[in-house]
């Protein structure tokens, strides 16, 4: 059962990666990275149960706690760019 | 078997992501893909049972490296400049290196081969002797802090040197005067009018700090230690700086204190070595720290891990502030 869950998460990771690679807009990529981070947390949790090493859940906890800092930094980055020159918010 | 399938799958995704980073003309896209690269790397370490390394990659890669790369991006143009130089030479060199590396992999033992040299040399000795000599469950911490304490001291010095290098190039705001300069003092937080990040951030910061302390002091029993704890602590302070402004963050941990943290951690580590020498042992031989050699080892590891954590946190925060102050 854990194996099936792990495989499902891996497939979702592939989908997120495709979105991150193809874009087209910058916000698609931000969202894809965020989704990828969440899937990594899930994958680590499931794999630690699959291997019976539940003490490794600390890692998933670390990700869950600090994963969104990067997204906040992206948000701040765009806000500051928008204020300095307004026409750059739309990527590629 | 499952491990191999997972690893191959994750490594394939890793290669695709790496190609995406190379192909991306927009540097912001490259930064985002680098984030995915780091996540995949950590997952791969985890699948291979290297939880301590995975935790380091998680602590640095999940938050801090993206933040630092974005800080650097604030100082550069957004698009990669088209290089006019001839590329065929670079292509030939890369192709040759690839062939050499691929050739070298044929010499490598298979994954998990019990006859591999790495399982024949010192590793069995570490596994066998750690319960007797150091008596902590996490052998990685024993190897890192005690058996190979010199290496770890060297790594801390490398981190410190990297921090010194960045500060020489960019400068730490307000490090010379007593208080931060006025231009950072304007409270330039772009997130101050976003309620959700603010509330969530304020709620989460204490837990991140608590988790950093847990990782710091639980390193003997589970995955963790000074490097990871320092990075998580720095992540918490960076989050504080993002939602409350750099000025507030610099009042909590002043630039002077940051510099003391950078040097002080490495100094603490080195002075443990000097203390052991003064007590009649070898440099970083913790046996002499306590009448019971096992307790001495444990004390030594706790103190040097603390030194590592302080230096790593100080260096990461100093680099962040240096970039952030320049970005405006």
UniProtKB/TrEMBL annotation, chain A:
Keyword Transmembrane: yes
UniProt keyword Cell membrane present: yes
Protein's membrane topology: Multi-pass membrane protein
Subcellular location: Cell membrane
InterPro entries: MrpF/PhaF-like (IPR007208)
Listed transmembrane segments: 30-52, 59-78
Key words, A-Z: Cell membrane, Membrane, Transmembrane, Transmembrane helix, Transport
GO molecular function: sodium:proton antiporter activity
Family statement: Belongs to the CPA3 antiporters (TC 2.A.63) subunit F family.
Protein name: PH regulation protein F
Organism, as annotated: Parahalioglobus pacificus
Automatic annotation (TrEMBL), chain B:
Annotated ranges, domain MrpA C-terminal/MbhE: 116-170
Pfam families according to UniProt: MbhD, MbhE, MnhB
Na+/H+ antiporter MnhB subunit-related protein domain: residues covered: 197-317
Location(s), subcellular: Cell membrane
Coiled-coil segments: none
Cellular component GO terms, alphabetical: plasma membrane
Its membrane topology: Multi-pass membrane protein
TM stretches of this protein: 6-22, 27-47, 53-76, 88-106, 156-175, 195-215, 227-245, 257-279, 299-323
MrpA C-terminal/MbhD domain boundaries: 13-78
InterPro entries, per database record: CPA3_antiporter_subunitB, MnhB, MrpA_C/MbhD, MrpA_C/MbhE
Sorted UniProt keywords: Cell membrane, Membrane, Transmembrane, Transmembrane helix
Similarity field: Belongs to the CPA3 antiporters (TC 2.A.63) subunit B family.
Name of the protein this chain belongs to: Cation:proton antiporter
Organism: Parahalioglobus pacificus
Classification lineage: Bacteria, Pseudomonadati, Pseudomonadota, Gammaproteobacteria, Cellvibrionales
